[in-house]
Amino acid sequence: MEVLDYLEKNFERIPHISVVKVAAESFTSQATINRTCKILGFRGYSELKYAVEEDLVLMKSSTEKHIAHTEYILRKISFDSVDEVAKAVSENRRKLLLFGLGASNISALYLQRQLLYKGIPSTIIAEVQMLKNFEDFALIILSSSGETQRCHQMAKEAQKRGLKVLALTKKDSTLMQLSDLTFYHEVPVDKQKGISREQQLHIILMVNELIDRI
Question: Which of 49-53, 66-70, 90-94 has the highest mean pLDDT?
């Protein structure tokens, strides 16, 4: 048990320390360490060291990949375009509607919760017909691609009824053209991949930025 605890606490050091040092620091013997390695499925400490070193390389590679991806996403978000949207949200803080489809609906729910933390109530709507019950409201539409037909229908009907339309969406998309104000991104949207958590990362980051600016 002492050896297992030691190996867990010193996981990143294992490739750089000898079995003699492990034995000394864990107050056990080399034989005990080798027996523990065999219990873990290795032929001995040397094989364990090699396996841990490989795992650390993979972990570092995976971490760097995710960091690079997030940095790429951040560069594709137009943070300068958020201020007017944030101002409009503040001005309509008692009359806010939210709309999103699929994964963007989850982002809309997240936005609703973050607004509540700011003391701003909002209502999520699901159908165009619901707009008739909300005069003089502002509608926030979340859509990664900005090319979803139901989002277009919602924006057009809202405009027709005199609602202010705000959007979190892609630059130069149809939804952006249909909206009064837009906080936009330029992240490529690959339709072939379908809905994934990664495709909503930029929207979540945009929601957080919007909340911070209110």
Answer: 90-94
Contact partners, residue 211, CB within 8 Å, separation at least 6: 111, 114, 115, 117, 118
Domain 2-69 adopts which CATH fold?
Answer: Arc Repressor Mutant, subunit A (1.10.10)
* Greater pLDDT, 69 or 203: 203
Domain range list for the chain: 2-69, 79-213
Task: Give dist(CA 207, CA 142) in Å, integer.
Answer: 9
Q: What is the CATH number of domain 79-213?
A: 3.40.50.10490
Q: What angle (nearest 5°) sits at the alpha carbon of residue 21, between those of residues 31 and 54? A: 90
Nearest of 167, 166, 169, 165 to residue 202 by alpha carbon: 169
Nearest to 99 by CA among 162, 156, 177: 156
Cβ-proximal residues to 138 (8 Å cutoff; 6+ apart), any chain: 88, 89, 91, 92, 95, 96, 97, 163, 164, 165, 166
Q: Is the pLDDT of residue 116 over 50?
A: yes
State the pTM of this model: 0.71
Q: Which residue intervals of 132-213 are DSSP H helices? A: 149-160, 174-178, 197-213
Give the dihedral sign, CA 99/100/106/110.
negative
Report how far residue 33's alpha carbon sits from residue 53's, in angstroms, rounded to the nearest whole number.
Answer: 18
Structure tokens at 64: 């760097």
Mapped onto helix, strand or coil, the DSSP state of residue 139 is strand
